[in-house]
């Protein structure tokens, strides 16, 4: 039997199951902000298909290179990578305003100094009625993940979202170490 610690990340979080809960569908557009290695981008890409688009935004060139390589290997031609610092107000200016159906923030808030800026950018990117998916580490002790003091409670994320005119639609199922929230514009 394989060990708990060595299981791939998807054994804990199932990105396809999580993204599916947003109602994302074929032909839609997604921006995965702070995407890292692209777990949610790949899941989104499969759902939206060739007629959809997935924009992967991250500051780390290595992460973006990984996403590009994996996308090529998997034959996913609808993924576009953008190198940008999400702390900057113009980070997502290369994505057309009002064009996204879904913006994803997965495990990024514990790394960001000004999280309200992320919601401002999401508001600019989303169509009216568009959604934001937030997946973050919960406050339960875990053998891995960010320091407990850096984890952001659901209530705090909701407050940031509400300040930028987002409304909480639902809490979603993730895994025992994370929580998931869906907001709408």
UniProtKB/TrEMBL annotation:
One Pfam family name from the record?
Answer: Methyltransf_31
Methyltransferase domain residues are 25-163
Q: Which InterPro entries match?
A: Methyltranfer_dom (IPR025714), SAM-dependent_MTases_sf (IPR029063)
Any one GO MF term held by the record is: methyltransferase activity
**Superkingdom of the organism of origin:** Bacteria
What is the protein's name according to its record? Methyltransferase domain-containing protein
The record lists the organism as Candidatus Doudnabacteria bacterium RIFCSPHIGHO2_01_FULL_46_24
């Amino acid at each position: 039997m394989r060990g708990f610690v060595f299981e791939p990340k998807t054994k804990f979080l199932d990105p396809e199951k999580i993204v599916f809960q947003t109602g994302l569908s074929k032909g839609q557009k997604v921006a995965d902000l702070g995407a890292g290695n692209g777990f949610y981008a790949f899941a989104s890409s499969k759902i939206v298909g060739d007629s959809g688009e997935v924009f992967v935004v991250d500051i780390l060139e290595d992460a973006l290179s990984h996403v590009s390589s994996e996308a090529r290997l998997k034959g996913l031609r609808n993924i576009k990578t953008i190198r940008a610092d999400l702390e900057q107000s113009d980070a997502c200016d290369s994505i057309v305003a009002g064009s996204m159906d879904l913006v994803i923030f997965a495990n990024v808030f514990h790394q960001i100094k000004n999280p309200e800026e992320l919601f401002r950018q999401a508001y600019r990117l989303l169509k009216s009625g568009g959604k934001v998916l937030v997946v973050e580490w919960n406050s339960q002790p875990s053998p891995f993940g960010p320091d407990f003091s850096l984890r952001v409670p659901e209530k705090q994320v909701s407050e940031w979202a509400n300040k930028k005119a987002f409304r909480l639609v639902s809490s979603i199922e993730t895994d025992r170490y994370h929580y998931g929230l869906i907001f709408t514009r």
